[in-house]
Amino acid sequence: MTELRFAYGTNGLTDLRLSDALALLADLGYRGVALTLDHMHLDPCAPDLARRTADVARDLERHGLAVAIETGARYVLSPTAKHGPSLLDPDPAARARRTALLVDAVRVGADLGATAVHCFSGHLPPGTPEDAAWPRLADALTPVVEAATAAGIPLAVEPEPGMLLDTLAAFHRLRAELGDPDALRLTLDIGHCHCLEPDPVPDCVTAAAPWLAHVQIEDMRRGVHEHLPFGEGEMDVEGALAALAATGYDGLISVELPRHSHAGPDLARRSIAFLTRALDQLPTASREAPAPC
């Protein structure tokens, strides 16, 4: 068994200043933060990114928080197209904008000593055959993988329901398209496994373990892609945590509640309490955090 470290995603704390969010998470007993690069939290498109990143690095060090970089901001590149433009956009110039954002995210991750940089494929555009989309995705990600390799940081792709890369099997197809680079790793969303994968969540965790660099967690119902606070779905959270500990996973396990920022501080408190209780039910798991405040 291994120590498990819990984090909380800033996409669920968008009503807080980033400095306040980091202080809150440290006070609650979290060991890390999943930092979504967005206009309200370390905007990747605004001037002086390196200077602002250095400020965040000091805050992280002061609070003793590890960090993973997430790139799922809804409108950071376009005010009208959610998650657009994507790595699958028919327009090469539009794809290049997403690639450039991800390369910048890798630089931010390197400057912050991040455990991983997260990304996803995007939706299959209308009229684009799937067989044409996979080489397009691989081509758009190649500069990002090269940047991650040079920086020594994992690029952790997330299978996302409804997107081209939506399952563990699809992740392995991308690995094959890119020639299985060592820097290409996996973000496993535990709720997505419960929602979409044919196998039980613990089996998904075991199968994903060799490539796992980042984990997201929340409650969810089978067949419904809706991130829910713990206790409102049907997830076997204890089973998922036991499987993660048994595989030796030592990255961050980040609570992912992007539609609940209106209640972010309270849900951050409730989530760490729930996860700590779940750890208490495991026979030999190490406790990663003190009891919540």
From TrEMBL:
InterPro entries: IolE/XylAMocC-like, Xyl_isomerase-like_sf, Xyl_isomerase-like_TIM-brl. Residues 22-277 form the Xylose isomerase-like TIM barrel domain. The keyword Isomerase applies. SUPFAM superfamilies: Xylose isomerase-like. GO terms for molecular function: isomerase activity. The keyword 4Fe-4S does not apply. Keywords: Isomerase. It holds the Pfam family AP_endonuc_2. PANTHER family: HYDROXYPYRUVATE ISOMERASE, XYLOSE ISOMERASE. This is Sugar phosphate isomerase/epimerase.
